[in-house]
Predict the 3D structure of the following.
Amino acid sequence: MGNLVKIASKNLSRYKRRTLLTLSLIVVGVLFVTGFIAVTGSFKTLMIGQITDSFVGHIQIHRKGYLGAIETLPLTMNMKPQAVKRVKTLLEKIPGIEAYSMRTKFGGMFSNFVETTNIRLNGVDPEMEAKTVPLLLPRIMEGEKALEKGEILVPELLARGMKVKVGDMVVVIATNRDGSVNGKQLKVGGILESATGPGGRDGYVHMEDAAEILRMEEREISEIAVRVKDFDRLQEVYRNLEANLSAEKNKEGKPIFEVHTWENLSPFYNIARMIDIMTFFIKLMLIAVVLISIMNVMIMAVYERVREIGTMAAIGTLPAKILSLFLVEGFLLGAMGAVVGSILSVVMIYAINLAQFTYDFGRQTGLVLTTTVNLQSLLVVSGIVIAVAVVASLQPALKASRMDPIQALGYV
Amino acid sequence: MELVTAQNLTKTYRTGEVTINAVRGVSFSVSKGSFTSFVGPSGSGKTTLLNLIGCLDKPSAGRLHVAGVDVTSLGKTDAAVFRGAHIGFIFQSFNLIPVLTAYENVEYPLIMVQNVPVAKRRKRVEELLEAVGMTDQQKKRPDQLSGGQKQRVAIARALVTHPEMVLADEPTANLDHDTAMAILRLMKKIRDEFRTTFIFSTHDNRIIGEAEFIYRIEDGLLKTTEKGGGLSSG
């Protein structure tokens, strides 16, 4: 095999310019694909991280039907303490869960004593919430990066519109599940930066304040957000959770809970999927580039070397050996292109990171494009290139191996 | 002892509507260790005959035994294996691989055809390069060699697999007279040294005398069989 590689590489060096041109075409293709994967992949990871870590969490558990009615934040569809307890027991038991947070979601009126507007609020245990969505507290633009009892975190746009500042007193008024209205005066503890996606413009109050405003005798929970330890194993945890929770049935035999991953909870998932589809098509283009360029160069190689192939066949070289010689040539072209392309990709990605490109997404501005490409993507792209190179050489190689030595020797 | 025996050998080609009778019922034999030449003008059928002996082509009729094997019915792969084991080839245009050095060209059949281990390979290549007087030029590529030198490398390549027989189709046609004579003498010297049978074709009357046995062919028929004068390698 080593000798075959040696002979094949000598053959490739016959027309150095042509080999270099083909190689550069493959290298450019690899650069494009890895560059695209790195940029879009980093964007995707960043955005998913922003969404899950800012407010959504990785998984959410609701009472069955709550998600369909989430726009109105219905208090009647909250989970009762008994149900919450069951979920809690399960969450403590299932491996792979880092943290979870109970939320009481409700809509209400927000007043600065001059003006009044509506607001969506989450009543949370600050410590649990911070563990489940670690980017929540860093989103506090002004004020202490914490949520104390008696305080409210006001979304940025609302604070600006209502002209409230940290330390101001405001009133939150809400209707409880019985229909009676109640209010509570709260201090603005912080202004919360907006995040992209639904729920990105919600305010936060302490769980006990929420219970007080809603006059809850026993704590009812609208939503349980869950954070998994390893994001790559999200589906595994989700399936485990889903299987366990779907077994919980009410008296009518219908499931009590519904479980969703961030993918069902954020419209960004569709953008993420679109990115995956685009990556797939870019990979198809790479396949076309490698296929055509290698096929072209190998067909040329066979035509130029007909007499040589005839000589090889005449002296007793078996067709399989001739076939493998040409396949090895194609393989070497692909492998060299993949290696050089991969090395240059790493350099390119490093350069992009050095250049500190920034971009805006939704209301988030000045996000720095931090590209990364993992070894797995490089191996996948290289694998595609090498496999396609060998496939592209197959037809010319078969042609060479099937040549009749007499005709080939007489070829001018 | 006969290395090649042909009985009533016939080869017919069809090119479109035209049928060409390249070889028309030829019988002959070539004895082991001989230096035999097939002589005739262009188109007489000598190349076809050499192709048949070399198992590159199959006869349309007749029987042909080479090295004790009936080669008339060998399949494509079996024929290739047979050629690799028993026959060496020398071509008119040398047919060396341009990107390989003289050494590598000689080594080539040991890698691609016989898969000989590296130490044995080196020994054999060096031995053959020495025999054809190309040791000094072994690192040169074909484009750096003269016609005569190229043919010397080709002879070494043909012999490196230790074949029983070397077939040379017009081996001197692309060489000047002096070089042609030198190549023929070299072939004969090697025949003496390695006891390899040499069969070559030529239409060059000046070198015919070097052959020990001469078969004259015309229009696909064997006209005369002569004993040549060149019995010693001088």
Notes: The two ends of chain B are 25 Å apart (CA to CA).
